Amino acid sequence: MNDTHGVEGKGWYGFDLDGTLAKYDGWRGIDHIGEPVKPMVDLMKRMHDEGKVVKIMTARVAPRRLEDGTVGEQFTWLTREPSSDPSAKYTATQYIQDWCEESAQLGFVPEIVYQKDPLMLELYDDRVKQVVPNEGWLVEDIAMSKRQRTETTIMKHDVVDIRWASRIQWLLLGVVTATLVFTVLGAALRPDRDAAERKLRDALTEYIRSGEVLP
Prior knowledge:
Blueprint lengths: L11 E4 L22 H12 L3 E5 L5 E3 L5 E3 L2 E3 L10 E3 H11 L8 E3 L6 E5 L14 H71 L6
Parallel strand pairs: 1-2, 1-8, 2-7
Antiparallel strand pairs: 3-4, 5-6
């Protein structure tokens, strides 16, 4: 793939976590990550197997300034394992790493980031709205417009086709009806004609036998 931002080097592909790689139905704390979304997890595995650099990009690991003035992860939790140190923390990053190994079973632990950089080539995210580069047009708007034009065109053709189909249908119906009428009339009149022909033949035969000369 071409580097869309003109930066040479090996780019990477970002995958959002909540709602993309993992099912999401609302925030329940950093210790809860939803069940894997198999199609996206499989895509991430496949791209990794192809040698592409894949990363998880999530706001869960975004930093914040702590009370002591230092900068640390925004979300931290008491360690989920028994610890003699009551201040021990289990970070959002660690929860995600465990999810990659245990739930998603990726077979590897990708780098986990909270922001993109110029080397990011693509981002898979349930909230992203794609924009045409340098144009400011939403791809979804273009797709919607194209779909509407297509549906309108199809509708117009359907109307034309329906009109012609209706005309042909009525023409065929008329031909069939006329054929049936003539067939029925012919069948109805045929016995009378045959009877008349028989009477005429019988009369001629009897006349000839009587020896009379025809005028």
